[in-house]
Amino acid sequence: MRAMALAARRAGRELASRSGAERSAALERMAAALDARRAEIQKANAEDVAAAADLVAQGRMSEALAARLPLSDRKIEGLVEGLRTLAAADDPIGRLLRKTRLGEGLELEQRTVPIGVLLVIFESRPDALVQVAGLAVKSGNGLLLKGGKEALHSNRVLHRVLAEALSPLSPDVVGLVETRSQISELLELDDVIDLVIPRGGNALVRHVQQSTRIPVLGHADGVCHVYVDKAADPAMAEAIVLDSKTDYPAACNAMETLLVHDAYPHADALVAALKRAGVRLYGGPHASRRFHLEHVEDFHHEYGDLAASVALVGGLTAAIDHIHRYGSGHTESIVTSDPKAAEAFLARVDSASVFHNVSTRFADGYRYGLGAEVGISTARIHARGPVGVEGLLTTRWTARGSGHTVGAVTRGDWQFTHERLV
User: Fold this and answer.
1) How far apart are CA 274 and CA 297, in angstroms?
2) Rounded to an integer, what distance in angstroms lies between the CA atom of residue 123 and that of residue 92?
3) What is the 8-class DSSP label of residue 237?
4) N or C: which end of the chain has fewer CB within 10 A?
5) Mind listing the pLDDT tens digit for each residue in 311-327?
6) Same domain, 385 and 325
7) Is 229 found in the same domain as 214?
8) How confident is the model at residue 379 (pLDDT cuts 50, 70, 90)?
9) Cβ proximity of 353 and 382 under 8 Å
10) DSSP letter at 299?
């Protein structure tokens, strides 16, 4: 594992030294290979999907986990488009952030550079392998990937296809590990691996956080809320709530709790629409009585399925308090035609993504125009929300002078001016 991590570091440094055009060309090759070898990829994926169906029938795998496995034509087309979007984007490496003339003849610059070596651990979704690999190539980072055993065949063929496309540069830039014991070894390599990104459920993230000294970027829960204000348009509220919950219930940006102003006149119709869509609903003390729902005590719950909690609240402040008490800081949305309520919600809710009249399902790197995402972060350091290329960069300072010494400052022979140039 150390040899693999060191190889990824060497390959990443080599990749970062190449021009943006060369890295974009590599991304175009990856996209073309993915498109051309679609049948091979889907054949391997079908093995994983069939095995998952058996496990679901035996009660050994959740339907939500199995739902993330299939690589449909539409999903592959999205992956190809994402890689090409990344290829067309500006080169993120070496971007000038700050330039200062410290004094006569001495200039200092701050530019973007790759973080180094990333270890990304993900569950079930094999499409994550492609997204993360694309982001790593664009940002010039070495990458180690560990997918779940439920997607073993899919991950193997995807890695092989992408590694072959990268071979003109270095296939070592993206490494694939397959066993849990290998992960344990990698989590000990804090002198080689610079950042761990677990992309999965609460148990995975917590385990990684407790098992390594390497910095960890991720989110433990996706407890997302939609608050329907008393001034919400009923058709819009129904469309947003249904999309937030039913478009892809297993996603971390799916609505898990519906908050409804207790004076909203269409609340009963809204709850009825969710029931017709097959959503199992659980209510707080007021909602359970009014809508005849099974009572729930704990609102900090990520269903990851066609299920949601419902709570009646007395207004905007109560809704925000509920979100801050039970939410995970992922994504929240308000549905209202009152601009003051909307702006107050956007300003006061402390989450990574906060929306007005928008489905929570828009919280996604591709939909944000990032090309793809390596994951969604609810942390407050370095990156927050969908993490695209920018979240995989750090900075480096460079100074250019002509024999400058600090002693000259001490003696009064030279002085700082700190003139900001950029």
Assistant:
1) 20
2) 28
3) H
4) C
5) 999 999 999 999 999 99
6) no
7) no
8) confident
9) no
10) -
Q: Are residues 99 and 195 in the same domain?
A: yes
| Residue carrying the six token digits 């480096």 | 396
Same domain flag for 210 and 230: no
Domain that holds residue 335: 224-362
Between CA 369 and CA 277 the distance in angstroms is 30
Q: Are 1 and 177 in contact (CB under 8 A)?
A: yes
Whether 332 shows a pLDDT value over 90: the answer reads yes
pLDDT digits (tens, 9 = 90+) for 101-123: 999 999 999 999 999 999 999 88
Looking at the fold, whether 173 and 243 belong to one and the same domain comes out as no
Pair (281, 202) in one structural domain:
no
Estimate the crossing angle of helix 152-166 against helix 20-36, to 10 degrees: 130
361: exposed, middle or buried (C-beta count within 10 Å: 0-12, 13-18, 19+)? buried
Mean pLDDT to the nearest integer, 318-339:
97
Token pair for residue 192? 């080689």
CA distance 44 to 158: 9
Computed on alpha carbons and rounded to an integer, the radius of gyration of the chain in Å comes to 24
For 294, what's the count of Cα atoms within 13 Å in the CB-facing half-sphere? 9
How remote is the C-alpha of 265 from its chain's centroid? 36
How many whole angstroms separate alpha carbon 138 and alpha carbon 389? 7
Q: Looking at the structure, do residues 333 and 391 belong to the same domain, yes or no? A: no
The rounded distance, in Å, linking the Cα atoms of 100 and 114 is 22
Are residues 390 and 319 part of one domain? no
DSSP per residue, 120-131: EEE-S-THHHHH
Q: What is the pTM of this model?
A: 0.87
pLDDT digits (tens, 9 = 90+) for 206-261: 889 899 999 999 877 899 999 999 999 999 999 999 999 999 898 889 999 999 99
Token reading at 280: 């199992």
With cut-offs at 50, 70 and 90, classify the pLDDT of residue 359: very high
Q: Residue 19's CB: how many other CB atoms inside 10 A?
A: 11
Residue 49 lies in a domain: yes
pLDDT tens-digit series, residues 133-191: 999 999 999 999 999 899 999 999 999 999 999 988 888 999 999 888 889 999 999 99
Site of tokens 């030294």: 17
Between CA 331 and CA 309 the distance in angstroms is 16
* Number of structural domains the chain divides into: 2
Q: DSSP readout, 42-102?
A: HHHHHHHHHHHHHHHHTTSS-HHHHTT----HHHHHHHHHHHHHHHHSPP-TT-EEEEEEE
